[in-house]
Design a protein that fits this description.
Largest sheet of chain A: none
Oligomer: heterotrimer
Helix content of chain A: over 70%
Number of helices of chain A: 5
CATH class of chain A: Mainly Alpha
Number of domains of chain A: 1
Structural class of chain C: mainly alpha
Chains: A mainly alpha (116), B mainly alpha (330), C mainly alpha (94)
Structural class of chain A: mainly alpha
Strand content of chain C: under 5%
Chain lengths: 116, 330, 94
């Protein structure tokens, strides 16, 4: 059963590297932003998995609930999700301006136009 | 975690892995954005299984809704097809595979999932849960930690959201020049008004979505919710109105000036509550001095700053959407 | 009994995902995403009862509404693209 519990962390590793591969290996700028978003989601999954307590429930005090999963990772990830959408929005705005200035959003075509 | 819920969680995470690999492999960016919506819903369901109800709500409101709309808005103005790279990047694949294996090797040192002796459960967690009961007395511990114990962090984060809004407005403009105030409403930006079923359904649902947004805002101390989620839901309802009726009408309903005032006003409200703590004799962002009873003071403080957060997040998200939508019309 | 509901919903989600990944036309994928959202609502509602916290049904409402907005954004994207393609055509004829 312990091995089954580790599955969450393995998914975190795979998701992390999938997102990272999209950032590094794909020349399209929007694909890179999508990869960044996947990378961030993997990190969120990892933190929330850390906070889980066996036999616990969501940290909202209600009737009959005794053990609570840790609220601290949840607070950190709550702010991180909102920050991630903000940076994605700003990144997309930059991509729009790059498209208007260079006429393309493929990384190598943009670098060709910049090189003397 | 009981074995059956663990198996459900494993199934959902497997679907998530399949979805992300499909996202990275597909050449059509529109397909990638659709699959990102599915991935966001899967992640939100996984969060719910891991007892993170507040985070699941935020991921749903922000990831599946707002993020899809923003990416589609950007795709409408750039191309939809991705050019395939000239050669298979073997070096990148190799490095990525090696790092993934190293991380998997490192996970064998983790404590078992949900173990009570894990470091995170030992020090701060019992203190937060106890102190929330004593000092703040609201049921939702996550809101208490976010708004009161870690209020300074949250102030920084609201400023980050504000900065992103300002940055997007600097880059893309407010779109006020394209659709001048006196110009007649053109039929081009008419949105989905000519289609009967979306129009009727949308008009039925928009008031309820707004109501849900306000409910989530004010009920954030008793159930999952709070300022961020409420801001995203209210923004989603205004974006729905803009998709249905066209962007010019949406700017008539909530003008750009009001949106700017919302963006700034929320941050100022948060700062003002902090300074009020200073003026009344406590520290910055110390809510217990806001009222004669410290517990009531904490609850007042949390209520006010959550309203500030909700206003700023709604204003920023709606402004960003309008900046994207009006760029194409120019 | 809740477990039977959850298993059935998970199977449907897997099928919807298969259609979203494979679907040759765009509308296949849009319908698949919409269906996936609906099944997520069902899954979370059943899980809320399994965990013994029926007060989490509030947050399940949000999913249903957000799913709706996502589909509308896709529809508007297509309408916009069709309009701009129609505008560009007359310019090409001249």
């Amino acid at each position: 059963m312990d091995i089954l519990g580790l599955y969450h962390y393995w998914v975190f590793a795979v998701l992390l590297m999938t997102g990272f591969y999209a950032i590094v290996a794909k020349p399209n700028l929007i694909k890179k932003l999508i990869g960044l978003s996947l990378f961030q989601s993997a990190v969120f999954l990892c933190y929330i998995t850390f906070g889980k307590l066996a036999g616990g429930t969501a940290p909202i005090v209600g009737k009959g609930a005794e053990l609570f999963s840790s609220p601290l990772p949840q607070v950190l990830i709550l702010t991180a999700i909102v920050v991630s959408i903000s940076t994605t929005a700003l990144g997309l705005a930059l991509v729009l301006r790059i498209k208007e200035a260079y006429g393309s959003i493929e990384e190598d075509e943009i670098q060709e136009q910049d090189a003397p | 975690m009981s074995t059956i819920t663990l198996l459900f969680s494993i199934f959902l995470l497997t679907l998530l892995m399949i979805t992300t690999m499909a996202i990275v492999r597909t050449r059509n960016l529109f397909v990638a954005v659709m699959l990102m919506g599915i991935a966001s819903l899967l992640i939100a369901a996984s969060f719910f299984l891991l007892d993170a109800a507040d985070v699941a709500l935020t991921e749903a409101a922000v990831g599946a809704g707002i993020s899809t709309v923003l990416f589609l808005g950007a795709l409408a103005l750039t191309s939809e097809r991705e050019r395939s790279p000239s050669s298979l990047p073997l070096l990148s694949l190799g490095i990525v595979a090696i790092v993934a294996l190293i991380v998997i090797y490192a996970t064998f040192d983790q404590p078992p999932l949900g173990s009570p002796s894990a470091p995170v459960q030992a020090h701060l967690t019992p203190w937060y849960i106890e102190s929330t009961r004593e000092l703040i007395d609201i049921p939702n511990v996550v809101t208490a930690v976010l708004a009161s114990f870690r209020g300074y962090d949250t102030l920084g984060e609201v400023i980050v959201v504000f900065t992103a809004g300002v940055g997007v407005l600097f880059l893309l403009g407010t779109g006020a020049s394209a659709s001048a105030a006196g110009a007649p409403l053109s039929e081009d930006n008419a949105g989905l008004r000519h289609y009967l079923i979306p129009r009727i359904l949308g008009r039925l649902l928009i008031p309820f979505i707004l109501l849900l947004g306000f409910y989530v805002q004010f009920h954030g101390e008793y159930s999952p919710g709070g300022g961020f989620q409420a801001g995203a839901i209210v923004a989603a309802s205004i974006i729905l109105y803009s998709l249905l009726e066209g962007e010019q009408r949406a700017l008539l309903v909530i003008p750009q000036g009001v949106l700017l005032a919302m963006m700034v006003g929320g941050v100022l409200l948060y700062g003002a509550v902090g300074v009020a703590g200073l003026v009344l004799g406590g520290n910055f962002l110390d809510y217990s001095v806001l009222d004669s009873d410290p517990v009531k003071g904490q609850q007042w403080g949390i209520l006010l700053i959550e309203i500030g957060i909700g206003i700023t997040v709604a204003g920023v998200l709606i402004s960003i959407f309008h900046a994207f939508a009006s760029r194409g019309a120019a | 009994m809740y477990y039977a509901v959850i298993v059935a919903t998970l199977v449907t989600m897997a099928l919807a995902l298969l259609r979203a990944v494979r679907g040759p036309t765009v509308y296949d994928r849009v319908l698949a995403v919409n269906m996936f959202g609906t099944k997520t609502v069902l899954l979370l509602a059943a899980l809320a009862f399994v965990f013994g916290r029926p007060d989490f049904l509030d947050l399940v409402l949000v999913y249903a509404l957000i799913n709706f907005i996502g589909v509308f954004a896709v529809l508007e994207f297509f309408r916009n693209r069709a309009t701009r393609a129609g505008e560009r055509q007359p310019a090409q004829h001249e």
